[in-house]
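Input chain follows. Return structure tokens only.
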Amino acid sequence: MAKLDAGSTLKRLRNRYRLVVMNDDTYEEVVTFKLSRLSVYVALSTVFVLLVGLTVALIIFTPLKYYIPGYDDLKIGREYQQMKYRVDSLEKQVGYQAKYIDNIKKVLGGDTASSLDTTQLKVPKDDISDD
């Protein structure tokens, strides 16, 4: 296989071509472009870079960024954590209050299961024998 030298590659990139757009019915030339491979490559690269830049700018500077999975604004993350802690503490508090209300209902209804009072227990005394 023949090696391509830099001179011939550059020469091929700079060869001029003509692109003619013709009317199919009258064969009249509508538009004529003089192009080279290099100019087409540069134009397509420029269009690609501009489209990528516009897409990135659209995502960064608009609220579209919030629809990207995994994107988390630090402020929103902190607010979420604070709300989570607050909800957890409120759930505990509601549980404590429900238990308190249940106990008050039992006391008012007379359904108390009293345990033995340790102050009224009779503990046998050991015989200490004096020898």
